[in-house]
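We treat protein structure as text, and this decision shapes the records that our systems exchange. The remainder of this section carries one protein's record, kept here as part of the documentation:
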Amino acid sequence: MEHIVTFDTNKQAITATTGTLLTEAAHEAGIDLTQPCGGQGRCGRCAVQVTEGSVRSRSTLRLSPEDVAAGYVLACQAVVEGDVSIHVPPQEALERRLTTDRTVAEVQVPAGYDPAVQPICRVTLTLTPPSMDDQTDDWSRLQTAVRQETGIGELQVSLSLLRKIGSVLREGEWQVTAVLDISHFPGNFGVSGKIIDLLPGHVPTDTPLWGAAIDIGTTTVSVWLVNLLTGEVVQQAAEYNRQIRRGEDVISRIIYASKGNGRAEICDLVLETINGLLERTCQRANPSQGHKEEKPLSSLRPCGDNIVKATITGNSTMIHLLLGIPAESIRLSPFVTAVNHIPSLTAKEVGLAIHPEAVVDCLPGVASYVGADISTGVLSSGVDDSEQVSLFLDIGTNGETVLGSHDWLVTCACSAGPAFEGAGVQHGMRATRGAIEEVWINGETYEPTYRVIGDAAPKGFCGSGLISLLAEMFLTGVVDKSGNFNHMLPTKRIRQGEHGWEYVVVWADEGAGKDISITHVDVDNLLRAKAAIYAGFEVLAEGVGFPLEAVERVLIGGAFGKYINVEKAVEIGLLPDMPWENFQFLGNTSVLGAYYALLDPQLRDRVADIASRMTYIELSADNSFYEAFTSALFLPHTDMSRFPSVAKEMMKAE
């Protein structure tokens, strides 16, 4: 049966058959409901209110008895069974903030960069016009000119470009500029190639040839616009991955993508994010800088059609979801990907809003939970080329770890969960304006002070704020080694809340409009996240017989890593207790590695070599991981000999 479904945020009612989920009905009505858990009914963020009619609800998890009595249901768990009217509360907004403060000027072009080795090249050709004595077809005539100018013998072309060759040749009066790709033919470098674009007339030699380095993070997508002739990063932009609304972690997104039209929808969401960033970087670029023309040629504008090459990195799930490749096998035993090394594609095939024939290189990954973002991170950090034994960490939803040197590399990934990215915490949020990023607690009064991003009224805690707060609570005795609250302390900040004991950092009258606190459940989630990360690199080191204390340097990649306070991270047992000078924070190593691979085919080959050299250890199959995880569930650890500096601080506090 069909029923009328009316949403108060949409003037037009829709029809839905019996059994239709409210999320599906909302999507049909053009309403975007937040589903960070991927529609599993675990987060409670898609709650809507039934004002007329009724629905059948499968689950009321995260809804209080008062909510249920008021008619609230989880849209991902409620199905239509009759005519119904729905009130949609305001949805969570994704506030924009660049994930790095690195400026374009700080990105150094690799020493000795030579555009001549770039597989993408541009040549101006002057062809002999046809005549009654020379009736060679246009395509053969073009191939002959390319062969004479470059030595490329075999030339491929797409049907769409073949259709316009004749008109371009005649518009340019038999002088044209060709953009060529010679990267598709290993072993025949400089012999075979593919024509990407053909422009009438002569394009000045100093006209930029554009490329894009793209990093698809679970939380954030970054794009660098690059001039391939100089190697210069011209513009950068970053934005939250719009897939977040369909799942805050990779597992939730895989589950969402496996339902109905979910795979196509989640693919569209990430393409919208990437294409929006490409457009933004192009608009920001100054195309006429350094040129003498009063009116720059249209080909000088770094619009999408002038980007002729892109490298893409990201974890295995993000790459699969971008390309619409089923990702279900990633989350199911024995945890394998559909593909780790993806052949070169065209922008038209992928859906990128750049030149349709542009070369798109999705860089190689290692395994289900160690993807191209780690391969490129190892490249840009230099772990694979160093004599020093290094521990490379990318702290995020999946805590990926690489241990090794130029002689050997081992890697693993642990499911840390999104707690350090603000999810799974009652007042957690992403690192946007209003997020508390650092906290200090007075050891005598137990009163907190804090710093907020953007000098705004506090709204919640971001990851760095949670690490700082947990460390301060532990060292001042607000919580013990197990994360239990000491409710006997003489402070009103520790109180019994809806989810057990909690510590209030911000009172409602301090400008927040609500009390902002951290609960016992929040602390448990943080302990599990930090324990998983620490246990991961501990098991990795022990698995190869290399003592963790013998590691010579710890390299931390990822945007989140730039904001971690080393001292606080060590105090909670998230990072190993080592001298501070052993730690290096590298920022977004993933996009930097994609940038290197974009510029230099030898570095691109090195990414593939890194991926093939890394030995992957599946922690779920390693019994020692559970033991290490259990030991790390305490602050900072059950074995205090591993954290001598923290033990010293605790003695001072006593």
User: Anything to note?
Assistant: The CA atoms of residues 549 and 578 lie 8 Å apart. Residues 95-103, 185-190, 287-302 have pLDDT under 50 and may be disordered. The first helix runs from residue 22 to 28.
